[in-house]
Design brief:
mainly alpha; 5 helices
Length: 151
Amino acid sequence: MRAKLTYFLTAAVLVVYFVLVGSRGVMLIQQGTALTVTFGCAVLVLPVIGVWFLWKNTRFVTQANRLAAELEAEGGLPADDLKRTPSGRVDREAADAVFALRRAETEDTPDDWRCWFRLAVAYHDARDTPRARKAMQHAIALHEGRRPVRN
């Protein structure tokens, strides 16, 4: 619950920021000189990119949470029982051992979104965020019946 609240609060702050930046861009365009119109258009690009990025991330998180809820209802959500360091981080050796099992599971059944979801969790525990995200995107695509993008 705390993570959701933090995410929504951050998103709300970003939306306010996008509105403020966008209004400054419009004000520059309204000045009417070539220089201010150019700067105004350049400033308007930033909120457009920001809104697109926020929308893509929100969509990704929503889809991943939906998969997690479905997997939990089936009893297939991986247990968070990995050994941890005194600081609370997952022990690297423990994460690597689980990762090897999840990778083998995924190689045996490459068309099962559940295996890809669990592999994404294993990547995350092993602190490989880019691969965790790609594995989760793969799981989402398989769940939706789409052909996953191969990288």
